[in-house]
Amino acid sequence: MAEFKLDDSVGFFLNRTALYLKRELLHAFRDAGCVVTPEQWALLNRLWEEEGLSQVELAQRTFNDKPNVTRMLAVLERNGYIFREPNEQDRRAFSVFLTAEGRQLKESLVGLAEAVLARALEGLVDDDVAALKRILRHIDVNLLDRQDAAMP
Q1: pLDDT tens digits, residue range 113-127?
Q2: Whole domain around residue 152: which residue ranges?
Q3: I need a labelling partner for 50 at 20 to 30 A (CA). Which of 34, 62, 63, 105 fits?
Q4: What GO biological process term is on the record, naming one (predicted)?
Q5: Mean pLDDT for the stretch of residues 71-76
């Protein structure tokens, strides 16, 4: 059996690339004067797609755990980007909605994210990007069954 080398591991590459992307996105947001983190941006993004989601739904759709989502939502609420209301069907749960200020963030933050992704994908042709997405989806499917049981 060949010796395992961390620097040659696909998992290590994926993790490092994800960290680089998050770091660049954070810098882009900070440079633009926005206090949103990449993790908070993911929550806002899901709310731009569909408001009124519960904290549990947001956790599932951002692949995050509920306590982290609860903390991030508290920060977003304190910053005036979202508000929470008791859920009509389950009074123990809250539905999350965007404020006008939270909606206004979409255009600038999406533009910044697109610029970071364009920089990350520079030099790749459309076929390369499509292949990368296909391969990553395949890896996701390979790992999904086990992850489903562990997801929040």
Answers
A1: 999 999 999 999 999
A2: 124-152
A3: 34
A4: response to stress
A5: 97
